[in-house]
Amino acid sequence: MKKLFVLFCILLSTTTFAQQKPAQNDDLTGLRAVGSPANPKVPMRWNHYNDYAGITKFCQDMAKAHPNLVKIESMGKTFQGRDLWVLVVSDFKTGNVERKPGFYIDGNIHSNELQGSEIAMYTAWYLAENFGTVEFTTQLLKDKVFYIAPSINLDAREDFIKNPNNPNSPRSGMMPFDDDGDGEIDEDKYDDLDGDGNIVLMRRKTPLGRMKQDPNDPTRMIPAKADEPGEYEILGYEGIDNDGDGQVNEDLAGRYDPNRDWAWNWQPDYVQNGALFYPGTLPETQAIKKFIINHPNIAGAQSYHNYGGMFLRGPGAEEDQQFYNPSDVAVYDVIGKTGEKIIPGYNYFVIYKDLYTVYGGEIDWLALGRGVFTFSTELMTPYLLFRQKPTQNDEFNQFGKYLLFDDAYVTWKPFKHPQYGDIEIGGPKKNYIRNHPGFMLEEDAHRNMSFTLFHAHQTPKLDVQSITSKPLGNGLTEVTAIVINQRVIPTHSSHDIKYKIERPDYITLKGASPLAAMIVENADLNITREQKNNPATIEVPNIPGMGYVQVRWIVKGSGKYTVSVDSRKGGVVEKTQ
Amino acid sequence: MKHRFLPVILAGMLTSCFAVVFNAVAQTPPAGTYPSAAQLSSRLKAITSRYGTLTNLQSIGKSPGGKDVWLLTVGRGKTAQKPAIALVAGLNGTHLAGTELAVQLAEKLLAASNQDSVARLLDSKTFYIFPSVNPDAQEQFVAKPRYERSGNGTDTDDDRDGRLNEDPFEDLNKDGLITQIRVEDPTGTFIPSKEDPRVLVKADPAKAETGRYLVISEGTDNDKDGAFNEDGAGGVALDKNFTFDYPIFVPGSGEMAVSEPEDRALLDFLYKAPNVYAVFTFSPHNNLSEAPKFDRTKTTKRIITGVMEKDATVGDQVSKLYNSQTALKDAPPMPPTKGNFVQTAYYHYGRFSFSTPGWWVPKAAAPADTTKGKTAPKPSDNDDVKFLKWADVHKVSDVFVDWKPIEHPDFPGHKAEVGGISPFARLNPPVSFLNDIADKHLKFMTAFVRQMPVIDVVNLRTEALSGGLTRVTAQVINRGLLPTGSEIGDRVRFVPKMKIELKTSTGQTVVSGRKRILRSPMAAGESMEVTFLVSGTGRANLEAGNAMTGTKSIDITLK
């Protein structure tokens, strides 16, 4: 009972091993820490955020350093013309990469949510740098292909990094729009009054205000008690009334939501804030949609957001609950609950129920429009600060004081404002709160990668477990094959089966001309369902997770049979007996 | 960007005189039959070369089959800066009459452009005419074999079995047309109609009828899956591919909403054209002869699925205008289908959106005399019977292929016959029938345009107060017969708000009052008072309106 496919893998992997030197301790003046590559070919620091040039260089360096493991492609151009890089990571010397079960990862769809990019990059880096040294990683890249797009909102990421912003801006992309209906476009943006690159808060000392400064922590503004006078009023983010219309900062760059631009239960702006003309109005969405559709082998997907520490599954809208069938939810449960163990402080949640309603979100399109098991992770949570559930609501201020040594806040300073007069400006820097502090980034990158690799590992792994034959008399033989799926994710979600999103899996008998073909529904009681046409290739709607299908042919004569399985999301395997 | 209105004489003009005008200049109907995409292109180019300055022809995109999606803009001067209506046709590939009507409408409008009234219309308004949004599907009318196709040139796996176009129609009787096949079979559920034996109807057990025929489309079951011709060439049905009430994973709807380049091109143009006030569509859907009713339960949920209250009233008004101007009767109801353009244009694009098939089978005249005891047969309820009767009366030939036996490989030993109503015949009469229809619709369309909002600023007063202060008071009024925008549009981000702005020059400041007022639509005849306290002297300017209504601007002198 030889497994050709496995043999093929072994042959190739030995070659790979032979070419590589053991890389355990090279260039280390000490001992490799478990879990980290000792001598990465692409040296990286995982404690800062990369701009477009940094991401581009990383992608190109990876492809250059790992020609057999990493290829760089562009999915298309952003609105401003940047390349939407995607790294294709797999063992290119084993099998046909295009037919391996695929896993898609993207980050940074909301441009201020930076760290998804670094986590995606870390994942590509970790996989390639550990290939050949960590057995799990080596096998994973033989079995699967990863499509890793560090940032899918590069224009506004660049804006966030290079231009004055606050932690929440710009969530949008950079396509200009008239936000306030006055016929002018992006004419009243934030203004970096003190020129420090951060858009922080404006406060004004006034007995009419109802806020006061926390006596224990000058970075924190708290409401005055009900029976005491306040000291300050908060005037919003740094800015002036640029267009003299009596409003401040009312027409910013963009003001739309790239994650409301997807073709599942899309709704217009008045139903779903942030939507544009129709799903796929943005060139980025169009490019990614095309990429996903052209890679029907993608069986799992992950999208990185911040913040809150949540592994989210769909649906985004309550009325779409009907499309999450119990058997699909069971798969999500296995992955989501494992995630809660991998990252303490992160919770497995459902978007519409535990977060808020989202129409036209990316992961609903992947899950329900394409039948891909998809998670979206809200990175970073205050739990990580002191490794306990936040209680006082001052954790970020305390963390800033004791662990970041006042690096996280702009200290309040006076400013003469053209409309507001004497004010003070100060508050959290744009890279605080939502995005990880540097020293925590690598750890959370690794933990989140681990969650995603668990998910990717659970994409289908098919095998022809057995081929048996039995003479039927009259020169006829009955050939029965069992095809198993050794992972939790089925080749088709039950939603996919219901709507026939992806074609059936094909199980083909070669080396004989079958007279009849059937799916065996109960082997013991001999209950079968005949497939009347094209008996050589039996079409099965699904190969269930941790399950099997049994198929049978009646052939003339006897001999040696090859059974090959061709599944879009499960890959191709073959066995001869 | 100001556009000053001509003196407002348009709104009150009597429409009855225009009927005469248009009839007088009506073009001779184009000879022959419905055009191919190439013929349509040359016809549109001929229009633009004839009426150069009044027209502009642009391709807004290409179909997957490589054909241009044309936009013919009709109007004088800076068309993008005038209130506009959009006229969309040919989204549904089977509806050739709509395309023909849209083109004839343009031709007739332009032919009348030397008339004063029409010239004024073309000075003040813009007509965006999209005559054929789905040229790939429409081309099947001239292709072999001819069959009713709604899908564009995108490759689709209609039965979602992993094989592309593996079970197309076959022209089994070699007449160039795809019709139907009836097979005598004990399991059949159809019988010939008693009213017209050419037509097959379901056997009704309640009338002690038993079935005699199986009815399938003309072709064989190539892939032996039990379904006939379920996956042939013909991709996404564009009028099932829009965002409102988009139907998931049904044949023709595509993989996702607005997946198709033609639909994207149309929406991209419209969303970037703030001046479009209303959208008219020639399609099988009819909401013109009878307007949709207001249903509060459908407008109070987060997702709105029924027309808004004020818009329902406007719908009634426009419906009355349609019925009176066209004098057409007995239009079939033809409810909207899922994912269609007409509803998307209203619920998502936020514009008034009207649709009519334009032409339909007229009701048979009631029998003149009913002699005692002998009542004449009631007109049939069956659409096919009615259609064939109409064709017989009007001597319209080639609408029916008589049932003739063939050998059908999937039904050996059974009597099988090919026949039935010819493709395209039901929705598309001979072109000569459309001349009069086009006149009537042009009459309606121009009557509608004359009811569009007209913004005026009246009763301007300037009161000089001491200390260089002036109080400016004026009333802004909508003198048109329609509101300045739809109620649904007030919620849509990409519909311009009604804007009133005091434009000051250097040295002038608005001391009290909002310099720029953005508000919801103004009903027909509605007025509002605005008042500003201004410091400074010299000339200022008060402007009211938006891209959909046109703007009115008046100068103010501050002393």
Describe this structure in words.
The complex is a heterodimer of chains A (577) and B (559). With 577 residues, chain A is α+β, with helices and mostly antiparallel strands. Chain A folds into three domains: 76-159 and 258-380 and 436-457, Zn peptidases (Aminopeptidase, 3-Layer(aba) Sandwich), CATH 3.40.630; 185-252 and 392-429, no CATH class; 462-576, Immunoglobulins (Immunoglobulin-like). Chain A has 13 helices and 23 strands. Chain A has an eight-stranded mixed β-sheet with strand order 1-2-4-3-9-12-10-11, sandwiched between helices. Chain A has a five-stranded antiparallel β-sheet with strand order 15-16-21-18-19, with no helix packed on it. In chain A, strand 6 and strand 7 (221-223) form a beta hairpin. Chain B has helices at residues 16-25, 37-50, 96-111, 116-124, 135-138, 261-271, 309-326, 341-347, 383-393, 434-451, and strands spanning 55-62, 68-74, 84-89, 126-130, 180-184, 190-192, 200-202, 213-217, 276-282, 352-356, 400-406, 416-421, 455-464, 469-478, 498-503, 509-512, 516-519, 527-535, 538-546, 550-558. The longest helix of chain B is centred in the middle third of the chain and has 18 residues, at 309-326. Chain B is elongated and about 105 Å long. The two termini of chain B are 26 Å apart. Chain B is 21% helix and 23% strand. Chain B contains ten helices and 20 strands. The interface between A and B is large, with 32 and 40 residues. Chain A: Belongs to the peptidase M14 family. Chain A: This is Peptidase M14. Chain A: Pfam families: Peptidase_M14. Chain A: Residues 177-190 have a biased composition (Acidic residues). Chain A: Residues 48-403 form the Peptidase M14 domain.
